Amino acid sequence: MLGHYGDAGPVLLNPHHITRKQLAIYGSWGSEPRHMRQALEFLQARGDRFPFEQLVTHRFPLEKTTEALETTARWKSTKSVVVPGMGK
User: Fold this and answer.
1) Does some domain include residue 1?
2) Whose CB has fewer CB within 10 Å in the chain, the N or C terminal residue?
3) pLDDT tens profile 24-42
4) Domain of residue 71, residue span
């Protein structure tokens, strides 16, 4: 399973389904620094062909971080960004 999710709380899980099939479950969070470099290179190489700037639908000043998180949690934005120093 692969995906991006928010914390939806606990889930019921029957361990029998895992042990019977001898499955392994691994969790992973975040990325490595090289992924950021690769993403920036990708954006730089293709920025003239795709409107990547449109991916960010909402920008918030640091003082409105809570509002940014709430907007994202309510699925009201595609990508919210907190910009320190915004509006100063």
Assistant:
1) no
2) N
3) 887 777 778 888 899 889 8
4) 52-88
- Residue 44 covered by a domain: no
In a domain? residue 61: yes
User: In the block, which residue shows the tokens 């399973």?
Assistant: 1
- Is-contact 60 81, C-beta < 8 A? yes
Tokens encoding 48: 């003239």
For the record, the structure tokens of 84 come out as: 């320190």
Number of domains into which the chain is organized: 1
Which pTM value belongs to this model? Answer: 0.49
Q: Rounded distance, CA 40 to CA 31, Å?
A: 14
With beta carbons less than 8 A apart as the criterion, state whether 58 and 68 touch. yes
Give the span between the Cα atoms of 17 and 15, in whole angstroms.
5
Any domain includes 25: no
